Amino acid sequence: MSKESVQAQLQENIKIIYHRAVDADQALSELRKQKTAGFAHIFADDTPFTKHADTFLPYVEELAADLQAIQTDTEEHYMKQLPAIVVKIELLFKMLNAFKENLKTK
User: Where are the beta strands (DSSP E) in the chain?
Assistant: First the structure.
């Protein structure tokens, strides 16, 4: 798979994550109004994310910035950062899916 096709697939995944994150953040806002969402971070400190937030969009922004960085940087940096970006994408998909499933049970 070429570098361009990998980047295109990463961008597509980030678009999907972005739309799900917007929906999840709206749900979180409603839960906070009901005082049923009391947590400090979406992800624990031991994840590859450097940001810590109680909503999803800051994590999506970090992921998009990471993708932008590897598109304009050296091949070595690209190869080094690509696995971390893939892990972040996987974590966001898993957390967003778990959040959505948890909402269904309430």
Answer: none
Query: Tell me, what amino acid is at 38?
Result: G
Single pTM value for the model: 0.89
Q: Answer yes or no: are the C-beta atoms of 96 and 21 closer than 8 Å.
A: yes
Q: Output the CA–CA distances (angstroms, integers) from residue 56 to 3, 19, 74, 90, in the order listed.
A: 27, 10, 29, 14
Q: Count the helices and strands in the chain (H runs, E runs).
A: 3, 0
Q: Give the whole-angstrom CA distance, residue 106 versus residue 92.
A: 21
User: Predicted confidence band at 85 (pLDDT cuts at 50, 70, 90)?
Assistant: very high
